[in-house]
Amino acid sequence: MEDGVDHLAFERNKAQFDVEDMKIIWAGSRQDFELSDRISRLVASDPAFRKDDRTRLIGRLFKNTLRKAAYAWKRINELRLNEQEAYKLRSFVDQPAFTDLHWGMFVPAIQGQGTDEQQQKWLPLAYGMQIIGCYAQTELGHGSNVQGLETTATFDPKTDEFVIHSPTLTSSKWWPGGLGKISTHAVAYARLIIGGEDHGVHGFIVQLRSLDDHLPLPGITIGDIGMKFGNAAYNTMDNGVLRFDHVRIPRNQMLMRVSQVTREGRYVSSNVPRQLVYGTMVNVRQKIVADASVALSRAVCIATRYSAVRRQFGSHNGGLETQVIDYKTQQARLFPLLASAYAFRFVGGWLKWLYMDVTERLQANDFSTLPEAHACTAGLKSLTTTATADGIEECRKLCGGHGYLCSSGLPELFAVYVPACTYEGDNVVLLLQVARHLMKTVSQLGSGNKPVGTTAYMARVEQLMQYHSDVEKAEDWLKPNVVLEAFEARASRMSVACAQNLSKFANPEEGFQELAADLVDAAVAHCQLIVVSKFIEKLQQDIPGKGVKKQLEVLCSIYALFLLHKHLGDFLSTGCINPKQGSLASEQLRNLYSQVRPNAIALVDAFNYTDHYLGSILGRYDGNVYPKMNEEAWKDPLNDSVVPDGFKEYIQPMLKQQLRNARL
Amino acid sequence: MEDGVDHLAFERNKAQFDVEDMKIIWAGSRQDFELSDRISRLVASDPAFRKDDRTRLIGRLFKNTLRKAAYAWKRINELRLNEQEAYKLRSFVDQPAFTDLHWGMFVPAIQGQGTDEQQQKWLPLAYGMQIIGCYAQTELGHGSNVQGLETTATFDPKTDEFVIHSPTLTSSKWWPGGLGKISTHAVAYARLIIGGEDHGVHGFIVQLRSLDDHLPLPGITIGDIGMKFGNAAYNTMDNGVLRFDHVRIPRNQMLMRVSQVTREGRYVSSNVPRQLVYGTMVNVRQKIVADASVALSRAVCIATRYSAVRRQFGSHNGGLETQVIDYKTQQARLFPLLASAYAFRFVGGWLKWLYMDVTERLQANDFSTLPEAHACTAGLKSLTTTATADGIEECRKLCGGHGYLCSSGLPELFAVYVPACTYEGDNVVLLLQVARHLMKTVSQLGSGNKPVGTTAYMARVEQLMQYHSDVEKAEDWLKPNVVLEAFEARASRMSVACAQNLSKFANPEEGFQELAADLVDAAVAHCQLIVVSKFIEKLQQDIPGKGVKKQLEVLCSIYALFLLHKHLGDFLSTGCINPKQGSLASEQLRNLYSQVRPNAIALVDAFNYTDHYLGSILGRYDGNVYPKMNEEAWKDPLNDSVVPDGFKEYIQPMLKQQLRNARL
C-alpha cells in the first residue's frame, strides 16, 4: 500500500475465515508459502525488475529482457539461491525469456535423453550458463505431428559424424524460444538416416553460434520469426527460425540414452525403457497445469478486487452506487473462475504427486500406471489451459472498458498465456488421446484388466449405467458423493455411448475420425470428473485455520455445480439427472454465490501476490484504482508533447483545407 | 495472386455453386458488391495504404495513422467520392483513427440532437473537416450508467453561458477516441444545472483546442490514456482523458433539439419526441451487427484457407498428409463459425431494414414498434459481438501455433475487435434490457397488447408451452419449421419460467436482481431465435445463382443445429425435445459438415476480401503460405543485425562468467 490507505479494508473485514491460513493452503505448505513469499518480495522490491513500463519499451523491449535475464542470473549467484529458489525468482520476474527454454527444455532434454557421459560433459556448461541452449523441435510445416519432422541427421561413417540438414523450406525449425538471437546451442530433432534407412526422429546437440563473436556457425542460418500477439507478452522472447545446410557434428552429440549409433553405423537400442519419454511428458504437463492455476488466479484477483472498487448504478438519494461485485450476473461469471483457480491449484498439487509416483514406478520397471497417468496429464493440460485462457479474457471483460487498457495488466496476461493452449500438445489433439485411452479402457472392461487411477470408476460401469440422481432439494447438491456420482455417471455413459457408436463402423479408425467431436466431449467429461474428484479428496484431508475448510467446501460446490449447469445437456441427455434436479442445482449455485461474496476479496488475497507480480492497476491490493490509473496514463509517450508529431504535416493542412497540394 | 500460382485452385474446383453469385448475396445486392469491390481494390492497390508493416511501426504508429487519415481525405476529395463511398474507403483502410469518431459520432450527434440552426452552423465545418470532433461521454468513473455522469454544465444567466466543469477525478472524460491528441471540438455530455437544479445529462458542443496552434484552450486539460490491448489495434487511436476547469461556452452550444434553455434560464422541452434518441441507438447498433459479420467472416476466411493449406498426420507411404480441414474436430469448430458469419450478415441486413422502418414510423409519430426494435437491436448487438470476439480467437487457435504470429493477422483482428463487446452498451447489461422487455411482454400477454415484431411468437405461448418436437429421424432437422418451432418453444418457455419465478418475489426489482443470470439465459435464447428466423426468412426469398441457395440452406441448418447442440440443456430441460432427438441433431450436423466441406473455400472466397484487407499471410487468396511467412519473418527489426543489441552488455559477460562485476 504505497500511500498507506487500504480502500478495500471494509471488504477484508467481511471475511469469515483466516486469510493467513488460506495462504498456506493455496501455497501447498508453509515451506512453499515462505519460499514464494520471500522470493516474490525480493523481486518486487528491486527496481531492476520493474515491469510497469513494459508496454512502453517500444523498440527496447528485447534488450531489456537481456538485461533482466543477466541481472537475475547475477542475483541468483550472489545470493547463492538453490535450484528451487532460482526457478521461483525467474518466474516472479514474469517476462518470457530465452532462459525459460534453457532451464525448462534444454537442460531437461540432456538430463532425460543424454547418456551419463553426455550429461557429465554438457550439464556443467549449461548449469553455469557458459553455453545457452534451446529446444529446436517444431518446424514450419510440422508441429503436432512430431513423427513428420523433415530435418535429417545422416550418419557419415567416413568421418564418424552426423550431417544435419534442412532439405525443404517447410523443414526450417520455427518457433523455438531463445533460438532467434541468443542460444549458442540447441537440442535439435531430426530424422536419423543411416545408410539410406530412416530410423525416425532423434535429438542431437548442435552448436549454433560461435562462443567468441556470437555469429552463426558455417551452414547455419538463424533469425527471429517476428512480432507475436500482445504488446509485450512473448515479444520479449526471440522465437526463431533455423536452417541447416549440411552441418556436421560428432557422432557423440546424438542423445544416446535410449538408442545409439555405433562407430560402424549400427543402430542399437539400449535397455533403458522408451517409456521414459512419457515420464518426461508427464512432468512438463504437470508444470503447465500448475501454471494454469497461477495465471487464472492472477486474472481472478484483478477482476475481483476491481469489481469491489467499481460502482455502477443503483444509487438512491445520492448515496454510493452498487459495487459491481454485488450484481448476480457479475458473480455468476466471476465466482466460478475463482473456484476454478482453486480447483486447478489442487489438481496441480495432486499431479505433482502423480509424477513422483510414476517416476518411482518407472525406476522399479513398473509401467502399469503409465498409460493412465499419461492420458490423465494430457487431458488435464488441455482442460486447465483452455479454461484459463478463456477465463483470463472473461476477467478482462468483467473489468469493463478499463480492462482493455494495458495498465489493467489483463491484455498482457491473456496474450502471454494463450500459447499454452497450443504448445506441448494442441488441446484438441490431446483430448483425442484421452478419448483413445477411454475407448481402450471401455473395451477391456470385460477382461481381467481392471481400470486404474482416474479411470477406476469405470469398474463400476454397470452400476453407473443404472444411476439416477436422488437429489430432492437444493441442499442435496452440497453432498460430495451426490456430485461425484453424477459426474461419474455422466462421464462413463458418454464413454460407453461413444464405444457403442464406434462399434458400428467396420473400420474402427474411420469411426474414430467420424465421431471425433463426440469423443472430445466424452474426454472433457472425464477430465472434469478428475478435477472435481481431486477437489473433493482435498477436502477429506485435515485443513487447519479458522473457516478455511468451509470456504473451500463452498468453492468446490461452486466449481462442480457451475460445470453441471454449463454442461446440463450432457447430464440430462444421459439421464443422470432430471430437469427438476438441474434447476435445483442452479438454485443452490445462487445460494453459494451469496456465501462466497463476503469472502471474495480475502480469497484472492490468499494468493499472496505482490502488486509487482500482478502488474495491474485495477488489481492493486489497496484498491486505490482511479488516481493511479490517471497517473499512469500521463506517462504514455504520446503525452510527451502537447501537439503530436505529425500534426504539422497531416492535420493542420486538413483543417486549413490545404491538403490538395500536400505530399503525404 | 502475386506469383500467379493458385495453391488453392484444387479446392476452388470442388465448389458446387457459383461463387460470383454468392458474392452478390453476401454483399446484399449487385450495387453493394460493386461499391465494395471497387473501393477495396482502390485502397489495396495504393501503397500509401499498406498495412503489413503495422505491427513493426514501433513509435511511429500514431503518426502513420495521421498520414493515412490525411491521405484518405485527400483521395476522397480528389475522386469526389460520395458519402457512401467515403465511408467504404475509410473502412477498407482498416485502421482505427480519430476520423471514425468524427464521422461516426460527432457528426451524427449534431444531426440528431442539434436544432436546424445549430446544424446549419456546425455541420458544414464538420463536413469539410475544418473542425474535427469527438464524442466525450464516458468518464473515468462512469460508463454503462450514463445518468451517473458527474461533469456539470451550469447556466450562468449573467453572461448567458454554460460553465463546463469536472468536479472530481472520476468525472474526467476517459476513453473518447480522437480526443487525446487530435480533436478540435467535442460533443461533451454533462449534467445541466440551472439555479441549483439538476436537469440530468445533456450534450454540449465544446471547443477543445485552438484552431491556430492546436494547444488546449484555457481551462482544458487533455491527454492520451495510454497503451491498449494489441500490437497496433486501437493504439492507432488517441483515446483521451479530458478535464474541464470552469470552461465557458455560449448558451447556443447546448444541443437543443429536444430540450432548450432560454435566455432567462428556463428549461423547456420541445415537441420533438424524446424517443428519437432510441432511434439513434437502433442505428448505431445495427451498424455494429453489420460489422460483426465482417470481422467474423475475415477470421473465418483466414482459418478456412489455412486449414486447407495446412497438412498434419495421416500420411501413408510417404504421400501427402491430411489437410486439417478434413478433420471432424476442425470442421466442428470452424464450420459453425462460417455459418455464423453468414447468419450475422443476413440478420444485419434485416436490421438495416428495421431501422428504416422505425425511422419512417417515428416521422409519422408512431412509436408502437420502438420498444421492441430497441430491445431487438440491443440483444443482437450483444449476441453477435460476443460470438464474433470468441469466434475470432477460436479461428486463431484453429491455425495452431502460426496463428499466434502477428503475420497471421488474427491477433490484431482480435485485439481491435473485442472492445465491441463493451462499447455502446456492455453485452450483459444489454441482455438484461432484453430480458426486461421480455418480462414485460409476458406480463401483458393476457391483455390486449399483442406482442409485435420479433416477439410476435409469444402470442402463441399456450400452444408453444404444449409443444413437443416430432422429429423422428435426422433429416427431420433439415425442415425449417421443425427448427423454428423448437427455438420458439425453448425461448418462450425460458421467458415464462423466469416470469413465474419473478412472481414469487414480493419486490419485483429484488427478484430481477436475484434471477439476473437466468434472465440473461432467457434473453440469449430469444436473440438466437431471431437470428435463426431471419436466416430462414432470407431463404424464403428468391435466391439466384447455381447452387447458391442450397449452400445457404446447409449453412442455415448448421447454424441452428450447432446452437441446439451447444444449448442442449435448455432444449432438454424445457422438454422441447428429448435426448434421442438431440442426438439425431448431432448426427445431422456431422452430415452437414461433410456437405459444406467441398464448398468451404468458395464460401469464404464469396466474401470478396482483398489480401490487403485480410492482412494475413495464413489467409492469402493463393494459399502460398510458407514461403511468404518466411519472407515476412526476415523483415522483423530484430533481424536487422545478426548479433542483437544488448549482447555485449548482458549476454557475453554471462557466457564468459564475468557478470560479477558487470553493471546491469
From TrEMBL, chains A, B:
InterPro entries given in the database record: ACOX_C_alpha1, Acyl-CoA_ox_N, Acyl-CoA_Oxase/DH_mid-dom_sf, Acyl-CoA_oxidase, Acyl-CoA_oxidase_C, AcylCo_DH-like_C, AcylCoA_DH/ox_N_sf, AcylCoA_DH/oxidase_NM_dom_sf
Residue span, Acyl-CoA oxidase C-alpha1 domain: 278-439
Keyword terms of this UniProt record: FAD, Fatty acid metabolism, Flavoprotein, Lipid metabolism, Oxidoreductase, Peroxisome
Organism: Glycine max (Soybean)
Active site: 424
Subcellular localization(s) per the UniProt record: Peroxisome
Binding-site residues, FAD: 138, 177
Main location group: other
Lineage, top ranks: Eukaryota, Viridiplantae, Streptophyta, Embryophyta, Tracheophyta
Domain Acyl-CoA oxidase C-terminal: residue ranges: 480-656
A GO term from the CC aspect: peroxisome
All copies of domain Acyl-coenzyme A oxidase N-terminal, residue ranges: 18-132
Protein name: Acyl-coenzyme A oxidase
Gene designation: ACX1;1
Cofactor: FAD
UniProt superkingdom: Eukaryota
GO biological process per UniProt: fatty acid beta-oxidation
A GO MF term: acyl-CoA oxidase activity
Family of the protein in this entry: Belongs to the acyl-CoA oxidase family.
Pfam family, one: ACOX_C_alpha1
